[in-house]
Structure formats: C-alpha cells, structure tokens
Amino acid sequence: xxxxxxxxxxxxxxxxxxxxxxxxxxxxxxxxxxxxxxxxxxxxxxxxxxxxxxxxxxxxxxxxxxxxxxxxxxxxxxxxxxxxxxxxxxxxxxxxxxxxxxxxxxxxxxxxxxxxxxxxxxxxxxxxxxxxxxxxxxxxxxxxxxxxxxxxxxxxxxxxxxxxxxxxxxxxxxxxxxxxxxxxxxxxxxxxxxxxxxxxxxxxxxxxxxxxxxxxxxxxxxxxxxxxxxxxxxxxxxxxxxxxxxxxxxxxxxxxxxxxxxxxxxxxxxxxxxxxxxxxxxxxxxxxxxxxxxxxxxxxxxxxxxxxxxxxxxxxxxxxxxxxxxxxxxxxxxxxxxxxxxxxxxxxxxxxxxxxxxxxxxxxxxxxxxxxxxxxxxxxxxxxxxxxxxxxxxxxxxxxxxxxxxxxxxxxxxxxxxxxxxxxxxxxxx
Length: 430
Fold this sequence. Notes:
Elements: H1 11-35, H2 41-47, H3 49-57, H4 76-87, H5 91-110, E1 131-134, E2 155-159, E3 162-169, E4 185-192, E5 204-210, H6 211-216, E6 222-226, E7 240-249, E8 253-255, H7 260-296, H8 309-338, H9 343-372, H10 383-390, H11 400-413, H12 421-424
Parallel strand pairs: 1-4, 2-4
Antiparallel strand pairs: 2-3, 3-7, 4-5, 5-8, 6-7
C-alpha cells in the first residue's frame, strides 16, 4: 500500500533529531560560553576548534558527503532536521560546520572519481578539516552572469600544467582556515581568461585549492586582507582574502570553463533549503523564550501576560510562522531530491523556502521582541542575539532581493513555466 502525505518522522529521522539536539544542548551550548570570553570575532572562531573536532568525531562532517563518495550522508530532509535542531541553540558554530558541507557540495554534485582524493580529509574522524565555497567578491556577485557586465573579477589562466589564480573574495565562511593561512579545501569560482565567448557563463569555472597547494606557493600567494566582524554569527570566519598568482595543478579543475555556473546554481539550490531550516530553528528559539516570559511575567498586572489577548496573538503568530516554514522547508527538501516535476519546478520550492522562511524569521523575532518589551533589550536575554542572527538570513547565501527572487522571476518568465508541477507533477497542456 502506498502512503501519501505523512509528516511523522521516521525512526531514522527521529534518531537524527535527538542526536542533533543532544549535541546542540551539550558541546554547542558550551562552545558559546567559551567563545564569548574572547574579544575579537576571529579569536572566537579559533576558540571553537575543539567543538568542531567533536563534530568531526561525531560524524557531522563525513555525514555531509554522500555514500557513493565514501561518506555517510543521508537525505536533504534529514539534513534540514539536523540544521534546525542545532541552529536553535548555537548558530555560529553550526554555520562553520554546515559551511564545510557547502564547500564540499560542488564535489558531491559532480561526483567525479578523479576528485575523490580531495574528499579524503573530510572522511576521517580525527582532525578538524574545513572546506569553503569561495564565490562572493567585494563588489558582489548578484549579476555576475549578466551579458556585457564586468562579471567575476577573480580569474584563472592556464600555463603549462597549471592554472594561475588571481583575485579577491569575501564573505566565504571558512575561506581562510583555522590559522588564516587557507582551509583544507576551497572550491573557488572564477572566470577563465581564455574564454572568447560573449556569454559570461562560458568562462565560469571552479578550481579546487588545497592547503597543500597554498603551501607550495610563495607566502604572498594567499593573504587575508581583513578580518570581517559581523553583527551576528560572531564566532564565524568569512574574511576578505586575496589570491596572487596562486598556482594549482590542472587536476584541480573541478569544473572546466563553461561548466561552472550550473554547479554554482545547484549548490546554492541545496543550501537554500537549509537556510529555511536555519530560519525555523531561530523562530523556535524566539518562540520558546517569548512563551516562557509570557507565562511567568505579569508586568505588575493582575494576570500573566499570556492571558492577555494581544500577547497570545503575537505568540500564536510566531508559532504559525515556524510551523508553516518547517512544512515548506521539508517539502522543498523532499521535492528537490525526489520530485515531482522537472528540475526547475523542484528548485522553485527551494528558492521559496529560502526567501519565505528567512523573511518570516526576522518578522517572528521582531514580534517576540515586541511581546517582551524593554526587557528584550537586556543583553542577558536571547532576543538581541536572535535578531542579529535572523537579519543575515535574507541577505546571505544569495540575497533574497538581489538573487533569489530574481531566480524565481526567471522561472516564471520561462515559456514552459509550470507553477504547480512540484506538487502535482507536470500539468496537461491544452
């Protein structure tokens, strides 16, 4: 008998959820206590190395590599469950962990046997390997494929048996490694100078850069120009970096010129779903904190705040936002991998999850702050941290206005756009 819609977690999914919750409430929560003792953000990031090692030992890095490449990764729905549980407790360290997964996603998508060696450090259980998807540049990348525009400034040119990389990048989590001398692996999105095509996508390629490659080059080949301090996620590292004539062997070409742009798009389609899960995690934390406050405070009145209609209305609104966003995230995760519909129909839901959930997250946290009132401004309360975390969700991983909504616009402009295919399958055309 075939089952239809069922939102109950399977035994495996429930096991993943419980394990993630336990790790979040234990090592992750303690990590924040430790890193808040550091003044500078880059020092906070470095102080999280021990808990990252625990994540590696617990399989959280190997679990972001699919089984056919030697990992233990599961479904995208399982990943969303994991992300939600961890993000509601400690977003910064969670982002470092999941950004390594982002850095490995292009290899997971291409799945080329000749590149398996680059994954080996991430299949071990006794180190702290970092990976990074190095894409964004100081001038932004929202319009990097626009015909006639400058496009990516970071370039690569072939010379003998090597490619030579030049340019600057920023905001790529983990892109400088623990010691700011480079991560274990970077997937660097760049523009091949040999392309003569008028189509910008024909020049886009992805180069793999390892820490061993960096060490083989001169000391000036890789530099951190500036450590970026951020409003939220204050124990993460996404600095401004520069490549200067950094040489890598030809075997490091993950995506040759003309094949890189689709992999970039597919990579961020996957993470769009996970930003939805991050948003739900933050909304859960905001709801739980506001609910506890409303149950235990009366603001010198004759009844608890929760008994007042305005407060209950705000709380119910936050709860509904979280539930709706979780449902959309799970549906998007399942659809992206399993259908129905063609790839464009499936990725539309991923885009929707990123846009809708992150936008609603900022509204939900703001509602929680309005509910609590001036007490929410106390730094000992969680609300300021939650708002600082929430504010980046609509603008990172492809900003909602500049990137994600434009991608949805492109889908709707398509002549063969089928709006409900991701739910009901391809529609019958007249």
